[in-house]
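I am still learning, so would you mind making up any protein sequence you like and the tokens describing how it folds?
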Amino acid sequence: MQRILSREEANLLRQLLGEARNVVVLCHKNPDGDAIGSTAAMTLLLRGMGKRVTAIMPNPAPDFLGWLPTADEILLGDRQHLKVDNALQRADLIVMLDFNTPSRMGELLEQKVMATDAPKMMIDHHLNPDAPCQLIISHPEMCSTCEIILRIMCDMGWHLHMTADEATAIYTGMMTDTGAFTYASNRPDIYEAISLLLTTGIDKDIIYRRVFFTHTEGRFRLLGYLLYEKMEVMPEIHTALITMTNEERLRFKTKNGATEGFVNLPLEMEGIKLSIFLREDSEQKGLIRVSTRSVDDFPCNEMCQDFFNGGGHKNASGGSLKMTIEEAIEVVREALRAYEERLKV
């Protein structure tokens, strides 16, 4: 694999880590597999260097990621306020993972983090990083933040001592951010990276089952209901739309995060190139979460930037709307009209 760090970046990274003793590692709100995987991998890596590391996420991760190494130690910014405040006060380095702007941490945690005097580092694969950091390692061409962490480890020689727990966390982030390597994963060096991870003795098949084969009966029944009752298919523009309210989620006794991956399913239908999933936020009333997935050359990140206050990758993006679900559906229809000609192709 080719190096991704410049000489200047490598020297600054070495300097920041060399001067740090108490490190805080952070990921974005509503964390996914790449967020938790990169947080776990970085926590383990820095502890192996003798650092005291506290990991923080703004709110809970989905249950199916709770088995990851160190996941049960991560502090919750929306609940464990005193422990979070203490960790930030003593931090002499803050590492921000898998987000490109501090607002992705949520307003409360963003204010606390950015008010500290600790040096800050950002490692991310989203477009247009924007944060006051001493070091930003940004590679949007990478499939995941976890891949970037592995590539950094290789550049710095740290991969020679990589543990199976570190490799498990990295593989999980790479796998989940590519839909089990079904999109954003055509680069040959991704598979070089996987081969390297496998040398630590991890079992990628067990990791896959732990992520994708641990769902509840309620989740399956909710999925069936949404596909049968709530999915609208628009074959003329190769698009499918699914919507879900909190009342529907509660009816099937499912927790927040249970719908992870639902947005991908309509793309399995012949002719569908764009899938949109709208759901009411389970914690913030009046907020609609928007997830989009696409295939081929349709840029759902552009649609999310233009209409859903979001962004992301070309084939996997998201956003949010402060309105009712009915109003959000109308915004989706407006977006589809704007992109109609590109969707018809």
Summary: The chain has a mean pLDDT of 95. The first strand starts at residue 22 and ends at 26.
